[in-house]
Every structure is written in structure tokens, then in C-alpha cells.
UniProtKB/TrEMBL annotation:
GO terms for biological process: cell wall organization. It comes from Shouchella clausii. It comes from the Bacteria. This is Penicillin-binding protein transpeptidase domain-containing protein. Residues 1-111 form the Penicillin-binding protein transpeptidase domain. InterPro entries: Beta-lactam/transpept, Beta-lactam/transpept-like, PCN-bd_Tpept. One of its GO terms (molecular function) is peptidoglycan L,D-transpeptidase activity. GO terms for cellular component: plasma membrane. SUPFAM superfamilies: beta-lactamase/transpeptidase-like. Pfam families: Transpeptidase (PF00905).
């Protein structure tokens, strides 16, 4: 989907998907423009840039803010962690390495909270 960032006007909607031909088993590409409105996907790391920007705009973080990337234990929830423990990370490296923990710490700050490790 291509939109005008100033007005929100939809300029174009296009899509393709790869499917297997039932007869030959070969992969082929098909038009799937309607997939723009009929298909859903988890947003995943695409939201991380928006999280950092929101942190800047709210004053929750500043460019260069460092958080220590390690597993977080928040009461009555599963452990929250990145795909590996990165140690100290600034905002740029948090985006570069796709740190989940940096995003959790940023959101906690946006909400005015303070993370404290929950002991078992």
C-alpha cells in the first residue's frame, strides 16, 4: 500500500503471492492486490522504529539512551527477552539488532513506570 504521508490518501495497492501449482508442484507468482485488505500479518519488528520515535517525542528516551538488554521478568507474565542477550545497547544498535528488551524498557518509560526484577 502506497499512501501520501501528508493526507493519508491511498495512491496504490498492489500485491503478489507465491503459490504451488497443484498439477506441477512448481512455485508461481499470482496477483494478490486484494491481499492488502483481506490478509493479516503480525507486525513484528516493523513497530520498533515507531517505538523509538514515540520514546523521543514523549521524552521517555533521548538519542543515545542506553538500556541493558537481558531477560525481563514482569509479574504474572512470561519472561520477555530479545533473541539473544546483548548487554548495553543504545537506540541505534537496538534497532540494528532488533532488541525486544530495549523496546520494553522504552515503553515502560513512556508509561512512567520503573522496571524492577520480580524475584521468584
Amino acid at each position: 500500500v502506497l499512501m501520501d504521508p501528508h493526507t493519508g490518501e491511498v495512491l496504490s495497492m498492489a500485491g503478489k503471492k507465491i503459490v504451488k501449482d497443484k498439477d506441477t508442484g512448481q512455485s508461481q507468482m499470482q496477483d494478490d492486490a486484494l491481499g492488502n485488505i483481506t490478509t493479516t500479518y503480525n507486525v513484528g519488528s516493523a513497530v520498533k522504529g515507531a517505538t523509538i520515535l514515540t520514546g523521543y517525542k514523549t521524552g521517555a528516551i533521548n538519542p543515545g539512551t542506553v538500556f541493558y538488554d537481558r531477560p525481563l521478568k514482569i509479574k504474572v507474565t512470561p519472561v520477555k527477552k530479545s533473541w539473544r542477550n546483548f548487554g548495553p545497547l543504545n537506540d541505534i544498535n537496538a534497532l540494528k539488532f532488533s532488541s525486544n528488551v530495549y523496546m520494553f524498557e522504552t515503553v515502560i518509560n513512556i508509561g512512567g513506570g520503573k522496571y524492577e526484577f520480580e524475584k521468584p
